[in-house]
Amino acid sequence: MAEVNPDSLFEHAREVIPGGVSSPVRAYGSVGGTPVFVSSARGPYITGVDGREYVDLVCSWGPALLGHAHPEVVAAVQAAASRGLSFGAPTAAEVELADAVRARVPAAEQVRFVSTGTEATMTAIRLARGATGRDAIVKFAGCYHGHSDALLAAAGSGVATQGLPGSAGVTQAAAADTIVVDYNDLNALEGVFAEAGDRIAAVITEAAPSNMGVVPPAPGFNAALRELTQRHGALLILDEVLTGFRVGPGGWLGLEGGYTPDLVTFGKVIGGGMPLAALGGRADLMQLLAPVGPVYQAGTLSGNPLATAAGLATLRLADAGVYDTVDRRSVELQRAVSEALSAASVPHTVNSAGSLFSVFFRAEPVRNYDEAKAQDQSAFARFFHSMLDQGVALPPSAFEAWFLSAAHDDAAMGRILQALPGAARAAAH
Ligand code: PLP
Asked: Which cofactor(s) are needed, names only (predicted)?
């Protein structure tokens, strides 16, 4: 394939697509420069339109647990494609995928498939309101649950990077029904319930927040959310879009255990890189969804056969060996990053939740969004660009988890480790 100059492509892209991208954080807004326009990806590597190859630590923002273009996943998608791209009718494969989800996450007694994590959380909120007859929802500052109106208050990720309070275009009424509480602050949440408990339909939380960087729940925090919501007749929605099937077969719930949410949302790994996400939960609640119940939800491409095939193949291949490898690589990388930054006297904190981790450029602990924001973003930008120059693509924001895959072998890890000292020195200046 002919090589293309990324700078001119970016210039053209910005003429025809706002910011030149289909999702904001891809534009490198907080680190500057020209994004890698990807022409192909395989295993732990992505290749840009200029022919440069990078070790990829974005992994499509989570889905590529097995690495890019795993031959068996690609074959499953190709086989499905040869049978038809979309039917708008139920399929046996959807039923099989629902069974696979239930086997791994017992809290998901029934499962409804959608195309994006945004739809999954949006539907969960509607279902919670329909089930309780209450309007208000509680979310935590820095948790990102997609870009639906109600959930765009004080979100992390792209919104955090841009420093937007929420978004223009979200009505006051939509924002008024969303109560935002500091993460890991149980006292504040108890105060909110004491004041408005009978108005609250649900608390939604990332199972282990990873969109303000990784900020794990304090021990017992999620279980306390469960107890508090139950006491006040509100639902608990555990958002496992990012953690589900990534930190372990049973997601964060499988690692932590000890409590059962009412509803769970999935995305990313469940679709193996194709547009697929899901909402699962207590059967009596799920039965409130159309066509059985009064809460409407639908989608032309929901349960798309190609996406379902990719998801099924991915879950089938994600065995104990895959999770062991990703866990081991994660520990190895966390240690190496920390050593390199320490050697260059760069203040930093590494937070992890299972194999998910991120590096904050500040010395003090990070337990919530305010603490995440109080890091040196310019140090991250220098670190990021040095890594990129050396052929390692990190997530282009200081507020993102770093993603590994089971395809990150010794060669790929070697390239990352080799790049770290130089990047740490760049961050120091
Ligand atoms: N929930 C969480 C925890 C996420 O990390 C994301 C996306 O990053 C979403 C929901 C939204 O998913 P999607 O981008 O597929 O709409």
From this structure: pyridoxal 5'-phosphate
